[in-house]
């Protein structure tokens, strides 16, 4: 019986482990190796350059612009999306017919990021776009701008699209978490005379903290990417003057435009460790919070 059980476990686990090694771990290993070479993507052999590619990253001004922009996105996109998602989910808790609102909020999730980027490109069009046309229609023509061509506003315009495309999903996620909170807590707060803001701050936020932490990890990963929206929407892409450059775009350009696959792999490895660090810190912070509450 014992041997039969081990044979069953091995038969179930080994195929999955082999597939994981071949299709997940092996590509990671290849990327790490290529980051230490000068492979061009088409050459039959690659020369080992050690940490040379990583040393070049520190002197690459365009890559540093990308790191700066991704850092800004890492702060703004998760915070704004979570704040909007929590606020809207809390409002829907007490509103009748909220299911219809959730469907409307969730609608952008049905569209791919490429489609969303194309649509918002039309919205931001300086001559015929919906945004500038709306400003002119209400007498605020002086506020119209070339949103994606102005270095001061291009990154904000891109982040607005990422937030708009994401917030609906997190409204649904947070609404489900809020529905799991016992109604007696809200009733007790109402009897004690707590207002809406106090109830939100003292009851809702602490009890949906785990959902917020998961949302921050996923949104942080999305903010460290941003490639699809920047590639489709922006001038260059990545412009103007590197104002919307992101690491994923730098990686793509160096690999498929300049044929520097080794250097691009170094960027990919740097992005991998940045994402891994974000996830570990967020999950560890959540674990510490749970231990303190316990």
TrEMBL record:
Give residue ranges for domain ABC transmembrane type-1.
Answer: 67-282
How does the record classify its membrane topology? Multi-pass membrane protein
Ordered alphabetically, the record's keywords are:
Cell membrane, Membrane, Transmembrane, Transmembrane helix, Transport
GO CC terms on record? plasma membrane
Which PROSITE patterns does the annotation name? ABC_TM1
The processes (GO biological process) annotated in the record are: transmembrane transport
Q: Which residues form a coiled coil?
A: none
Which CDD domains does the protein's record reference? TM_PBP2
- From the UniProt annotation, give the residues forming the signal peptide: none
Q: Which domain of life is it from?
A: Bacteria
* Similarity comment: family membership: Belongs to the binding-protein-dependent transport system permease family.
Q: Which named protein is this?
A: Sugar ABC transporter permease
Q: Which organism is it from?
A: Paractinoplanes toevensis
Q: What is the lineage of its organism?
A: Bacteria, Bacillati, Actinomycetota, Actinomycetes, Micromonosporales
